[in-house]
Amino acid sequence: MNIRFYMTPGSCSTGIHILLEELELVFEVYLVDLMKGDSRTPEYLAMNSKGTIPTLVTNEGEVLTDFLSIAWWLGRSHGKSRLMLADLTSELTALEMMNYAVNVVHGLGYTRVFTPENYLPRGGDPEPVIAQGKQLVTSGLKWLSRRLGSNEYVLGEFSIADGALFYVEFWADRIGLPLPDACAAHYQRMLQRPAVRRVLMEEGYGSLYR
Ligand SMILES: N[C@@H](CCC(=O)N[C@@H](CS)C(=O)NCC(=O)O)C(=O)O
Protein backbone atom coordinates (compact mmCIF):
# COMPACT_ATOMS: atom_id res chain seq x y z
CA MET A 1 0.00 0.00 0.00
CA ASN A 2 1.29 3.48 -0.85
CA ILE A 3 1.60 6.20 1.78
CA ARG A 4 -1.45 8.48 1.60
CA PHE A 5 -0.91 12.15 2.38
CA TYR A 6 -3.78 14.56 3.02
CA MET A 7 -2.72 18.15 2.60
CA THR A 8 -3.74 21.71 1.84
CA PRO A 9 -1.41 23.84 -0.31
CA GLY A 10 0.29 26.64 1.66
CA SER A 11 -0.72 25.24 5.06
CA CYS A 12 1.26 23.53 7.82
CA SER A 13 1.17 20.33 5.74
CA THR A 14 3.75 22.01 3.47
CA GLY A 15 6.36 21.14 6.12
CA ILE A 16 5.50 17.43 5.84
CA HIS A 17 5.29 17.62 2.04
CA ILE A 18 8.91 18.81 2.07
CA LEU A 19 10.01 15.86 4.21
CA LEU A 20 8.25 13.39 1.88
CA GLU A 21 10.01 14.94 -1.11
CA GLU A 22 13.38 15.06 0.65
CA LEU A 23 13.03 11.33 1.36
CA GLU A 24 12.04 10.71 -2.28
CA LEU A 25 9.14 8.56 -1.12
CA VAL A 26 6.31 7.34 -3.31
CA PHE A 27 3.06 8.70 -1.92
CA GLU A 28 -0.48 9.52 -2.99
CA VAL A 29 -1.62 13.09 -2.42
CA TYR A 30 -5.19 13.96 -1.43
CA LEU A 31 -6.02 17.65 -1.56
CA VAL A 32 -8.14 18.88 1.33
CA ASP A 33 -9.91 22.19 0.70
CA LEU A 34 -10.36 23.57 4.22
CA MET A 35 -12.49 26.49 2.98
CA LYS A 36 -14.89 24.11 1.25
CA GLY A 37 -15.15 22.01 4.42
CA ASP A 38 -13.37 18.92 3.07
CA SER A 39 -11.88 18.29 6.53
CA ARG A 40 -15.35 18.23 8.12
CA THR A 41 -16.98 15.58 5.94
CA PRO A 42 -18.06 12.35 7.69
CA GLU A 43 -15.51 10.41 5.60
CA TYR A 44 -12.62 12.67 6.62
CA LEU A 45 -13.66 12.77 10.29
CA ALA A 46 -13.89 8.98 10.32
CA MET A 47 -10.20 8.95 9.43
CA ASN A 48 -9.07 11.98 11.48
CA SER A 49 -11.61 12.93 14.13
CA LYS A 50 -9.76 16.22 14.77
CA GLY A 51 -10.63 17.36 11.25
CA THR A 52 -7.14 18.75 10.69
CA ILE A 53 -4.43 18.47 8.09
CA PRO A 54 -1.85 17.04 7.72
CA THR A 55 -3.00 13.43 7.92
CA LEU A 56 -0.72 10.66 6.76
CA VAL A 57 -1.73 7.01 6.36
CA THR A 58 1.37 4.84 6.50
CA ASN A 59 1.99 1.94 4.12
CA GLU A 60 0.82 -0.31 6.93
CA GLY A 61 -2.48 1.56 7.23
CA GLU A 62 -1.71 3.41 10.46
CA VAL A 63 -3.34 6.85 10.54
CA LEU A 64 -1.18 9.71 11.86
CA THR A 65 -2.93 13.00 12.52
CA ASP A 66 -0.44 15.53 13.81
CA PHE A 67 2.67 17.19 12.55
CA LEU A 68 5.08 15.86 15.15
CA SER A 69 3.93 12.24 14.91
CA ILE A 70 4.09 12.30 11.12
CA ALA A 71 7.55 13.91 11.09
CA TRP A 72 8.77 11.47 13.73
CA TRP A 73 7.41 8.48 11.83
CA LEU A 74 9.12 9.71 8.67
CA GLY A 75 12.42 10.11 10.50
CA ARG A 76 12.15 6.76 12.24
CA SER A 77 10.80 4.49 9.55
CA HIS A 78 13.39 5.75 7.15
CA GLY A 79 15.98 5.66 9.86
CA LYS A 80 18.91 5.17 7.55
CA SER A 81 17.93 8.40 5.84
CA ARG A 82 19.67 11.62 6.68
CA LEU A 83 16.52 13.14 8.14
CA MET A 84 17.08 12.13 11.75
CA LEU A 85 20.33 11.94 13.60
CA ALA A 86 20.76 8.93 15.82
CA ASP A 87 21.81 10.41 19.14
CA LEU A 88 19.43 11.34 21.92
CA THR A 89 20.54 14.98 22.19
CA SER A 90 19.68 15.56 18.51
CA GLU A 91 16.31 13.89 18.97
CA LEU A 92 15.51 16.07 21.97
CA THR A 93 16.51 19.23 20.12
CA ALA A 94 14.37 18.21 17.13
CA LEU A 95 11.37 17.62 19.42
CA GLU A 96 11.87 20.88 21.28
CA MET A 97 12.13 22.96 18.11
CA MET A 98 9.27 21.25 16.27
CA ASN A 99 6.99 21.46 19.29
CA TYR A 100 7.73 25.16 19.70
CA ALA A 101 7.18 25.93 16.01
CA VAL A 102 3.97 23.89 15.71
CA ASN A 103 2.33 24.49 19.07
CA VAL A 104 3.56 27.95 20.10
CA VAL A 105 4.35 29.92 16.94
CA HIS A 106 1.60 28.27 14.87
CA GLY A 107 -0.81 27.08 17.58
CA LEU A 108 -0.87 30.28 19.65
CA GLY A 109 0.35 32.91 17.18
CA TYR A 110 -0.68 32.20 13.58
CA THR A 111 -4.09 30.81 14.52
CA ARG A 112 -4.93 34.27 15.92
CA VAL A 113 -3.73 35.94 12.73
CA PHE A 114 -5.50 33.56 10.30
CA THR A 115 -8.62 32.63 12.26
CA PRO A 116 -9.24 35.45 14.81
CA GLU A 117 -12.97 34.59 14.80
CA ASN A 118 -12.14 31.46 16.82
CA TYR A 119 -11.03 33.74 19.69
CA LEU A 120 -13.94 36.17 19.59
CA PRO A 121 -17.61 36.39 20.44
CA ARG A 122 -19.73 36.65 17.28
CA GLY A 123 -19.28 40.07 15.68
CA GLY A 124 -16.25 40.97 17.87
CA ASP A 125 -13.43 43.13 16.49
CA PRO A 126 -10.72 40.85 15.04
CA GLU A 127 -7.96 43.49 14.97
CA PRO A 128 -6.71 43.19 18.59
CA VAL A 129 -6.61 39.40 18.26
CA ILE A 130 -4.66 39.62 14.98
CA ALA A 131 -2.23 42.10 16.58
CA GLN A 132 -1.74 39.79 19.56
CA GLY A 133 -1.16 36.87 17.17
CA LYS A 134 1.51 38.82 15.28
CA GLN A 135 3.22 39.66 18.55
CA LEU A 136 3.25 36.01 19.58
CA VAL A 137 4.64 34.98 16.20
CA THR A 138 7.33 37.67 16.38
CA SER A 139 8.50 36.70 19.85
CA GLY A 140 8.29 33.00 18.98
CA LEU A 141 10.42 33.42 15.88
CA LYS A 142 12.96 35.36 17.94
CA TRP A 143 13.22 32.42 20.32
CA LEU A 144 13.61 29.95 17.45
CA SER A 145 16.24 32.17 15.87
CA ARG A 146 18.28 32.36 19.07
CA ARG A 147 17.99 28.59 19.55
CA LEU A 148 19.08 28.01 15.94
CA GLY A 149 22.09 30.27 16.47
CA SER A 150 24.79 29.79 13.88
CA ASN A 151 23.57 26.32 12.82
CA GLU A 152 22.80 25.98 9.12
CA TYR A 153 19.91 23.67 9.96
CA VAL A 154 18.23 22.83 13.28
CA LEU A 155 20.54 19.87 13.93
CA GLY A 156 23.44 21.17 11.86
CA GLU A 157 22.46 18.96 8.90
CA PHE A 158 19.00 18.93 7.32
CA SER A 159 16.54 16.89 9.42
CA ILE A 160 12.83 16.41 10.09
CA ALA A 161 12.89 19.50 12.33
CA ASP A 162 13.57 21.83 9.39
CA GLY A 163 10.15 21.11 7.85
CA ALA A 164 8.42 22.66 10.87
CA LEU A 165 10.77 25.63 11.09
CA PHE A 166 10.33 26.27 7.37
CA TYR A 167 6.56 26.57 7.36
CA VAL A 168 6.46 29.09 10.22
CA GLU A 169 9.12 31.14 8.38
CA PHE A 170 7.23 30.81 5.09
CA TRP A 171 4.05 32.15 6.67
CA ALA A 172 5.94 35.13 8.15
CA ASP A 173 7.17 35.89 4.64
CA ARG A 174 3.62 35.56 3.25
CA ILE A 175 2.15 38.04 5.73
CA GLY A 176 5.12 40.43 5.69
CA LEU A 177 6.55 39.86 9.17
CA PRO A 178 10.34 40.30 9.24
CA LEU A 179 12.34 37.19 10.11
CA PRO A 180 15.09 37.50 12.72
CA ASP A 181 18.59 36.94 11.31
CA ALA A 182 19.18 33.22 11.92
CA CYS A 183 15.65 32.33 10.75
CA ALA A 184 16.05 34.55 7.67
CA ALA A 185 19.28 32.75 6.75
CA HIS A 186 17.68 29.34 7.41
CA TYR A 187 14.67 30.28 5.26
CA GLN A 188 16.88 31.35 2.34
CA ARG A 189 18.92 28.16 2.68
CA MET A 190 15.73 26.08 2.60
CA LEU A 191 14.52 27.91 -0.52
CA GLN A 192 17.68 26.75 -2.33
CA ARG A 193 16.89 23.07 -1.74
CA PRO A 194 15.52 21.32 -4.84
CA ALA A 195 12.87 19.43 -2.81
CA VAL A 196 11.61 22.67 -1.24
CA ARG A 197 11.41 24.35 -4.65
CA ARG A 198 9.54 21.36 -6.06
CA VAL A 199 7.03 21.46 -3.22
CA LEU A 200 6.44 25.21 -3.54
CA MET A 201 5.98 24.79 -7.29
CA GLU A 202 3.50 21.94 -6.80
CA GLU A 203 1.60 23.90 -4.15
CA GLY A 204 1.25 26.92 -6.43
CA TYR A 205 4.00 29.21 -5.07
CA GLY A 206 6.61 28.55 -7.75
CA SER A 207 6.48 31.98 -9.30
CA LEU A 208 7.32 33.62 -5.96
CA TYR A 209 10.61 31.83 -5.41
CA ARG A 210 12.38 31.48 -8.73
N1 LIG B 1 -1.33 20.68 15.99
C1 LIG B 1 -1.80 20.25 14.69
C2 LIG B 1 -2.02 21.43 13.84
C3 LIG B 1 -2.73 21.11 12.57
C4 LIG B 1 -3.58 22.27 12.13
O1 LIG B 1 -4.02 23.08 12.95
N2 LIG B 1 -3.82 22.36 10.84
C5 LIG B 1 -4.67 23.40 10.37
C6 LIG B 1 -4.19 23.92 9.03
S1 LIG B 1 -2.55 24.62 9.08
C7 LIG B 1 -6.05 22.82 10.16
O2 LIG B 1 -6.19 21.67 9.84
N3 LIG B 1 -7.07 23.66 10.35
C8 LIG B 1 -8.41 23.26 10.10
C9 LIG B 1 -9.21 23.13 11.35
O3 LIG B 1 -8.64 23.09 12.45
O4 LIG B 1 -10.44 23.04 11.18
C10 LIG B 1 -0.78 19.31 14.08
O5 LIG B 1 0.25 19.15 14.70
O6 LIG B 1 -1.01 18.72 13.03
Describe this structure in words.
This protein has 210 residues and is of the alpha+beta class. The chain folds into 2 domains: 3-77, Glutaredoxin; 88-193, Glutathione S-transferase Yfyf (Class Pi), Chain A, domain 2 (Up-down Bundle), CATH 1.20.1050. It has helices at 13-22, 42-47, 67-77, 88-114, 127-148, 161-175, 181-191, 194-202, and strands at residues 3-7, 27-31, 55-57, 63-64. The longest helix is centred in the middle third of the chain and has 27 residues, at 88-114. The chain starts with a strand and ends in an 8-residue tail after the last helix. It binds glutathione. The site of glutathione has 13 residues, from helix 3 and helix 4.
Class from secondary-structure proportions: alpha+beta
Integer tally of domains: 2
> Which term fits the overall shape?
globular
Ligands present: glutathione
Strand tally is 4
Spans of 5+ residues with little confidence (pLDDT < 50)? none
Distance between the termini: 35 Å
Averaging pLDDT over every residue, what do you get? 94
Strand order of the largest sheet: 2-1-3-4
What fold name goes in the CATH topology slot of the largest domain?
Answer: Glutathione S-transferase Yfyf (Class Pi), Chain A, domain 2
Largest sheet: 4 strands, mixed
Q: For this structure, what is the CATH class of the largest domain?
A: Mainly Alpha
Order of helices and strands: EHEHEEHHHHHH
CATH second-level architecture of the largest domain: Up-down Bundle
